[in-house]
Specification:
With 182 residues, the protein is of the alpha+beta class. It is 20% helix and 47% strand. The chain is built from three helices and ten strands.
Length: 182
């Protein structure tokens, strides 16, 4: 038996999310009310460059996150605009946040952020063959960030040790490192 939506009550419609209470018949036949946060989704891209010494370098952003009460080291990314293609979103965010374009974008799959209460899905990419954008980064009003360059192996170690705690960044780093055999 597939789950069945019996009714939905909209509680809040915001700029980024929508909150509703859904009455659902679960696969076990029971009916229950579930709080749902609907989100249009997002895309991120891990930009990497190979330095003159052959070390693969990651470009991450250190971004202030109000919900986390501080600064997080993250892969560049952002919310999909409407039904925007995730790859186009990832490319746009690279330009806006780090001032680079990528000639090559490799898909690393997608993740659900917190499927217990939201449908938010984030698409993950590896960005290579980077070129600078003449105008540089173009941050949105609510973005406070700096770009940090570090060896990809060090970033993966920081994710492994718990120093990097942003889930989308941890997964992207692990998947990219596996693909690149780092």
């Amino acid at each position: 038996m597939q789950p069945e939506l019996l009714a939905t009550t909209s509680i809040y419609q915001g700029r980024v999310v929508q909150l509703s209470i859904d009455r659902v018949r679960l696969p076990n036949g029971r009916d229950t009310d579930l709080e749902m946060i609907r989100h249009p989704g997002a895309a991120v891209a891990l930009p990497v460059e190979t330095a003159a010494d052959g070390v693969v370098q990651a470009l991450l952003v250190r971004q202030y996150r109000y919900a986390a009460s501080g600064w997080l080291l993250e892969v560049p990314g952002g919310k999909l605009d409407g039904d925007e293609d995730p790859e186009l979103c990832a490319r746009r965010e690279l330009e806006e946040e780090i001032g680079r374009t990528a000639r090559s974008l490799t898909g690393l799959g997608s993740i659900f952020t917190t499927p217990g209460f939201t449908d938010e899905r984030i698409w993950l990419y590896l960005a290579t063959d980077l070129d600078p954008v003449a105008s540089g980064p173009a941050l949105e009003a609510d973005e406070v960030l700096t770009v940090e360059r570090l060896p990809l192996a060090d970033a993966v170690e920081m994710a492994t040790s718990g120093e990097i705690t942003d889930a989308k960044t941890v997964v992207t780093l692990f998947r990219a490192a596996a693909l690149l055999r780092i």
